[in-house]
Amino acid sequence: MKIYHTSKSIVHHKGGGTSANRKASYLYFYQERNRLLNFLLFFPNSFLIKYIPYLIFNFVMKLTASAVSPKYSAVRLIKAYWWLLTNQKWIMKNRALLKSIKLIDDNHVLKYLSGKIFNGDNVFEKVINYFSIGYCKIVGIKIIENK
After folding, report:
1. Among the ranges 78-82, 109-113, 115-119, 139-143, which has the highest mean pLDDT value?
2. Alpha-carbon gap, residue 105 to 80, rounded angstroms
3. Most buried by CB count within 10 Å: which residue of 33, 42, 59, 127?
4. Are the C-beta atoms of residues 110 and 104 closer than 8 Å to each other?
């Protein structure tokens, strides 16, 4: 497989084309699962050891937020984590495959990621983001906020 880059290409993107008719709670499952799956698939074990407490913190905070905000769904959040727990063989198989073809150092990618859990629309979200970013700094997870 070859990938070509050209600065002359033009892409017209219609946002939500495949998800426009779906409920927000339905989409939340895939957003949460896929976000976490990216970390589980693409990053090394040394990173995952640092990331496990972050996963637990993420789960508890979003579960708490689901009690007060319709933006988060406790049921879909639990289903996303349950999917990850029950598909460990698939995750491990694909981790090995991706590791064999990876060319770029993980830290190069991590420095473009955010340590924020929430958008920061209110005081609760800002406080949680503060602790989340602080945790990343303490354990040495390089994120965009810790430059």
Report:
1. 78-82
2. 28
3. 33
4. no
Q: From the centroid of its chain, how far is CA 2?
A: 27
Angle at 59 between CA 57 and CA 64, to 5 degrees: 95
3-state secondary structure of 99: helix
| Structure confidence by residue, pLDDT tens digits, 55-102 | 898 899 899 988 988 888 899 999 999 999 999 999 999 999 998 998
**CA–CA separation, 87 and 95 (whole Å):** 12
How far apart, in Å, do the first and last CA atoms of the chain sit? Answer: 35
Amino acid identity, position 123: V
- CA atoms of 9 and 13, how far apart (whole Å): 13
The answer to whether 44 and 106 are in contact (CB under 8 A) is: yes
The whole-angstrom separation of Cα 13 and Cα 54 is 33
C-alpha distances in Å from residue 120, one per residue of 9, 54, 134? 35, 18, 15
Contact 129, 47 (CB under 8 A): no
Q: How far apart (Å, rounded) are the C-alpha atoms in residues 90 and 72?
A: 27
| Gap between the Cα atoms of 101 and 125, Å rounded | 37
Q: Is the pLDDT of residue 1 over 80?
A: no
